[in-house]
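#onboarding

Welcome to the new folks! Below is a worked example of what a typical request in this channel looks like: someone posts a single protein sequence, and someone else replies with the predicted structure as tokens. Don't worry about understanding the tokens yet, we'll cover that in week two.

Example request:
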Amino acid sequence: MAETLRHAVHVPNLREYGDPNVLVGLAREAEQAGWDGFFVWDHILHRREPPEPVVDPWVTLGACAARTERITLGTLITPVSRRRPWKLARELATLNVIAQNRVVLGAGLGSPRHDEFEAFGEEADDRRRAARLDEGLEVLAGLLSGEPYEHVGAAYELDEMRFLPVPPRGRRPPIWIGGNWPNPRPFRRAARWDGVVPEKVGGQLPTPAELVDVIAFIDQHRDPALGRYDVVAAGLTPGPDAEGAAITHAYGEAGATWWLERFHPSRGSVGDAQRRIAMGPAR
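Example response:
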């Protein structure tokens, strides 16, 4: 098993979880119970009918950062193509200062395509959104470097500028890439960044054996000079008992560096999530 396996809570930002006070409370409870991270979805609408509460993840994570001291905080997954990357860079840099360098950005295409993109007049074509995602990540990393940066590309054009403050300890927040396995494109993308968050088409989660295949694919396409990267596995364990530990250990043996306890509004209430979080991670 990977000795570095860390455990995080992953929660929605909508429906019963669509209250920033609820999410801040869950983040505090996660830290107190010994979890290593707290991640929230990044949806802006998700579905129009029936209407449902949705909260902004960045404002919420700022409040979480102010009320916690240790746990890693971030989004999974932010659709970069619908954002101005310089605005996202400012939000991420500001959050990282509040959190004292314990922030991660999860990035990907995002879904559902209609209610999250077409309904707002945003680009819906997957290939064009992927191109904007790649260029947006390039701009984001350049601005977060703290060094002078300019850019001329297909979607964005920036005069030379320098974003301050410089990231704490000179290191920008890690960027993890989400994607549906076995579609190769997002995993080639992940090979260029700091981590990978794999799912399967339809929202199913990879098995440990499939996670081994994901890692082998990324290793094949990754420049060794980039160094180590995080591998995220997810699911739901019954608790910090032998059954729960067997699940997380299997993913750790496969090469995962993070386990996400993945809560969903259709699989239980906030109260159910609170009870599981309070039990602590299945180490």
